[in-house]
């Protein structure tokens, strides 16, 4: 018998395939990990944007997660879009009885700064899931909301936000600096060993759909494969950089297209 690492994604569906559950499963597969999935919502979505959301009942979300955990040897869990406080609570209840590492990608704030979830869901994520997370991976506006700080404007600010999230209860926090612009893309991790910056040349591309989903599921896949957190973050960032670079020439959709999840096999 051959053992394979397992990563469970708890997130919403993207019918255009570039983000959400679909991106998570593609990422896991590309990294040699078995991907399982519990759906939290169906979306009407493509590369141009999201125009509709149909939530899955909280008890049914919990039942999906429980079914996977009761049967599969899950090495790590990635949590993405949850949508409502009731779904957050349902997921938190299921995870309370497990010690599986959790990568929390708090899908709460759009690039424009608009809130994607109601305030009670933000509070539930902050109170119930951030303290349960092995690492939380917010972008700049999400980190500001969760940590109660001003949006980062510099790499030093990213470090301050990541430390603030640790003070809020997360074991580690990786604040993504994509919103800052500049020639480099810098993400900053705060963990028990201190603060570490991961920098790479910024890829000139409009095909950025699903980057946050891809990075967080790659981190979870690395952890499921036995990597320590800092190594999992470094490997995930390398994978995403390659997917962005290879995906720059993809012609999929008429908006912000997806990254190339299969770049290593092409």
TrEMBL record:
What's this chain's function? Catalyzes the phosphorylation of hydroxymethylpyrimidine phosphate (HMP-P) to HMP-PP, and of HMP to HMP-P.
SUPFAM superfamilies under this entry? Answer: Ribokinase-like
Q: Can the keyword Kinase be found in this entry's annotation?
A: yes
For this UniProt entry, what's an example GO CC term? cytosol
Q: Which UniProt keywords apply?
A: ATP-binding, Kinase, Nucleotide-binding, Thiamine biosynthesis, Transferase
GO MF annotation list: ATP binding; hydroxymethylpyrimidine kinase activity; phosphomethylpyrimidine kinase activity
| Pathway note | Cofactor biosynthesis; thiamine diphosphate biosynthesis; 4-amino-2-methyl-5-diphosphomethylpyrimidine from 5-amino-1-(5-phospho-D-ribosyl)imidazole: step 3/3
What are the GO BP annotations of this UniProt entry?
thiamine biosynthetic process; thiamine diphosphate biosynthetic process
Instruction: Give the protein's recorded name.
Output: Hydroxymethylpyrimidine/phosphomethylpyrimidine kinase
Q: Which residues form the Pyridoxamine kinase/Phosphomethylpyrimidine kinase domain?
A: 14-260
**Which reaction(s) does the protein catalyse, per the Swiss-Prot or TrEMBL entry?**
4-amino-2-methyl-5-(phosphooxymethyl)pyrimidine + ATP = 4-amino-2-methyl-5-(diphosphooxymethyl)pyrimidine + ADP; 4-amino-5-hydroxymethyl-2-methylpyrimidine + ATP = 4-amino-2-methyl-5-(phosphooxymethyl)pyrimidine + ADP + H(+)
* Kinase among keywords: yes
Xref: CDD domains? HMPP_kinase
């Amino acid at each position: 018998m051959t053992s394979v690492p397992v990563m469970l994604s708890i997130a919403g569906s993207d019918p255009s395939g570039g983000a959400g559950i679909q991106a998570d499963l593609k990422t896991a597969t590309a990294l040699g990990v078995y991907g399982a999935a519990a759906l939290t919502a169906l979306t009407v979505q493509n590369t141009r944007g999201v125009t509709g959301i149909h939530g899955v009942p909280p008890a049914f979300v919990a039942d999906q997660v429980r079914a996977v955990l009761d049967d599969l040897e899950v090495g790590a869990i990635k949590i993405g879009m949850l949508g409502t406080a009731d779904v957050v609570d349902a997921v938190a209840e299921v995870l309370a009885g497990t010690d599986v590492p959790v990568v929390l990608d708090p899908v709460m704030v759009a690039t424009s700064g608009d809130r994607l979830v109601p305030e009670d869901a933000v509070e539930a994520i902050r109170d119930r899931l951030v303290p349960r997370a092995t690492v939380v991976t917010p972008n700049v506006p999400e980190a500001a909301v969760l940590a109660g700080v001003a949006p980062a404007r510099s790499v030093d600010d990213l470090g301050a936000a990541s430390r603030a999230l640790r003070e809020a209860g997360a074991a580690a926090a990786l604040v993504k600096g994509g919103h800052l612009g500049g020639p480099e893309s810098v993400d900053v991790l705060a963990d028990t060993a201190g603060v570490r910056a991961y920098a790479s040349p910024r890829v000139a591309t409009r095909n950025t759909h699903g980057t946050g989903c891809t990075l967080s599921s790659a981190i979870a896949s690395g952890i499921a494969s036995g990597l320590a957190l800092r190594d999992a973050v470094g490997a995930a960032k390398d994978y995403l950089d390659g997917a962005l670079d290879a995906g720059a020439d993809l012609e999929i959709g008429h908006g912000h297209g997806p990254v190339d999840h299969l770049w290593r096999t092409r």
